Sequence to fold (367 residues):
Amino acid sequence: MDNNQNIFISAGDISGDIHAANLIKEIKKIYFSKNKNVKVFAVGGNNLKSVTDGFVEDIVNINAFGFFPLKQVFFLKNVLKKIKRIFLEQKISKVILVDYYGFNIHIAKAAHEMKIPVIYFVAPQVWASRKYRIKNIAKYVDVVFPIFPFEVEMYEKENVKAFFEGNPVADLVPETENLKYKPGNDKKITVGLFAGSRKNTVKRHLPIILETAEILKEKINAEFILFSLDKPEAKIPDYIRIKNGSDFEERKKIDIAVCPSGTVSLENVLMGIPMVVMYKLSWANYILARLIVRVKYITLANILLDKEIVPECIQHKASPEFISNKVLEILKPEKYNEVKEEFFHLRQILGNKGVYKRAAQKIYDLF
Fold:
């Protein structure tokens, strides 16, 4: 292995940007401990920008997600041209992709054509939708790091090297302290409210979540905390406390959460926080999603357990009345403890802390 190694890494959304930055920190530690030089070039967001030596472009904060507006398509095409120049000019020795299949697969193809090894950290969940994508991954990617153990066999069937080192979210959240807790009328319940991370999602979800809190306030002795990445545009009632950012120490105080599916729901699982998941799309996007998504549930806990342990309030069910009723059901002691036990079991399945470090060492050893 040469003493000089240049790495390129790409992440296209907020959670991917966090994972990518943490992985790069561990990779740099390994190289420096071996007295080897490494420079890292990246496209991503603020987290990657802070740990890389050459930041090419911010593709996280353009909100490039799903089906891009035409302007974003042209923007990403120009970004891809810049990336190809970086591959040549900086003599990139390996490319690391983090989730975000729609754009990252084009980077994978470009790297493959230049005979640069490609590693996919946080491999796309092709089992959930658009399974044909695995064919392109098999064609252009050398190694994948799935975030669920059952995905390894799926990739290996396509002759792709796959290593499960644990789910990286486990490195980000604190361990849950109490496996069981019985909410009761003598204790004030702390309800965590999460509207989402993308502006369009927050715009749809926040009014529903605020009305849900208003209903719950009249039915249980509760305090409410709204966790928001940005300052909410809507007026927030005085009885709801606002907390900017993830703030896991504050989240440890939550007894139950109302949140969208996705990363936040997985974080709640790993922290042992029972929850009700809600999600609302425009009807056009909802119909399209139903056509391409091939799983029974949208919440990762339910998918992994193959049963609805977490209530899912999707589309027409994402009403304040329906959501608040589901919250009240979960707060019943027997149901509450059942959920806590299932979450504890899932935490064991999803791996121990040290995921970034183990994956970084594997990447160093392989390439």
